[in-house]
Design a protein that fits this description.
Blueprint lengths: L4 E2 L3 H6 L3 E5 L2 E6 L3 H10 L2 E4 L4 E6 L3 H8 L13 E6 L5 E9 L4 E6 L4 H11 L6 E4 L4 E7 L3 H5 L15 E6 L2 E6 L8 E7 L3 H12 L5 E3 L1 H10 L34 H10 L3 E8 L10 E4 L2 E12 L4 E9 L8 E6 L2 E8 L10
Parallel strand pairs: 1-3, 4-14
Antiparallel strand pairs: 2-3, 4-10, 5-8, 5-9, 6-7, 7-8, 10-13, 11-12, 12-13, 15-18, 15-20, 16-17, 16-19, 17-18, 19-20
Helix pairs in contact: 2-7
């Protein structure tokens, strides 16, 4: 078995007493003080996540736009100036290779941020699709660290430390500036359903920047948070996780990501299959469930309606903000709607749940 990879902050996590787990081929902190405590701190104040396991790939050259437009289902023309876009990346049959962020870096250059467990696969896919094009595909993941500062006090904590105006930076926009003397790309994005920033910089700077950020934000309640809280936060916000709500056998349309599929932009990988799926109507769709009974729904558990199996749980957990057990489920289209009662088979016992509108949680608007 291949040796698990470690981020530049591995020793910091060990020193902090983090519980380390395998995730996507990496050793990552699951929690420090506890998942529920860290989750609530992000919702109520701010948490700092090590997400340096994520992949960063540069596409550069005269045909960079052409390649990105071919790869993603969203319209690459929307990624311009300081605007970031989210998009699935599909196979010709409409299944998902990965979902990613696209950062325009000037004329003929893009930065793609991909999921940790898919880096090697994605780089190979990009290079295969780049054949015959005037473009270079370069994996800069090993040289790049990434921190996510997430929560309602993120701006208040980060702005005094950054040599860049962040208060005017819009959601899904980015800028460059120094943070505590370190050159960074600062992006107002995140995976928690809260306001916040994702910060990219040289890996060698990671330990010092991590320590100094935590120290600077301590009086305002900033805490280190692990993958456990990151998962429960993204689930409450109904954000998809690759391998659960998206994958080679689940299309973006089935996952409810229609707004990120631009069928009228021209040809791209998966367009024909997705257009046919949209015209015929998806056979499955993603829904939200809130448990009525006490069981916790886990991925793979069957979902039943009227005694008939109609789908399965893709993600499920206790939701600390809501105080209840929730789940995302992929079910046969047209079988259930909001307010309908279904059952989840949990260890061969049927537990009641109700279909609810998504997202489960939406942050208060200022």
């Amino acid at each position: 078995m291949a040796e698990l990879k470690k981020t530049p902050l591995y020793e910091e996590h060990i020193a902090a007493g983090a519980r380390m787990v395998e995730f996507g081929g990496w050793l990552m902190p699951l929690q420090y003080t506890g998942i529920i405590e860290e989750h609530r701190q992000v919702r109520n104040c701010t948490g700092l996540f090590d997400v340096s396991h994520m992949g960063e790939i540069v596409i550069k050259g005269p045909d960079a736009f052409k390649l990105v437009q071919k790869l993603i289902t969203n319209d690459a023309a929307r990624a311009r100036g300081d605007r970031v876009i989210y998009s699935p990346m599909c196979y010709p049959d409409g299944g998902v290779v990965d979902d990613l962020l696209v950062y325009p870096q000037g004329e003929g250059e893009y930065l793609l941020v991909v999921n940790a467990g898919n880096i090697e696969k994605d780089v190979a896919w990009l290079r295969d699709n780049a054949a015959g094009l005037a473009v270079e595909v370069r994996d800069i993941s090993p040289a790049t660290a990434q921190l996510a500062l997430q929560g309602p006090r993120a701006l208040e904590i980060l702005q005094p430390l950054a040599e860049a105006g962040l208060s005017s930076l819009g959601y899904y926009h980015w800028t460059r500036g120094r943070v505590l003397g370190v050159d960074c790309l600062i992006s107002r994005t995140g995976y928690t359903g809260e306001d916040g920033f994702e910060i990219y910089f040289a890996s060698a700077e990671a330990p010092a920047l991590w320590r100094h950020l935590l120290a600077a934000g301590k009086e305002m309640g900033l805490v280190a948070a692990g993958l456990g809280a990151r998962d429960t936060l993204r689930l409450e916000a109904a954000l998809p996780l690759y391998g659960h709500e998206l994958g080679p056998d689940i299309s973006p349309l089935e996952a409810g990501l229609d707004r990120f599929v631009c069928l009228d932009k021209g040809e791209f990988n998966g367009r024909v299959a997705l257009a046919a799926q949209k015209e015929a109507g998806v056979k499955r769709r993603l829904v939200g469930l809130a448990m009525v009974d006490r069981g916790i729904p886990r991925p793979g558990y069957p979902v039943l309606a009227g005694g008939r199996e109609i789908g399965y749980i893709t993600s499920g957990s206790y939701a600390p903000t809501l105080g209840k057990n929730i789940a995302l489920a992929l079910v046969a289209a047209g079988t259930i709607g909001a307010g309908a009662e279904v059952e989840v088979s949990i260890r061969e016992r049927l537990q009641r749940a109700v279909v609810v509108n998504l997202p489960f949680y939406r942050r208060p608007r200022k």
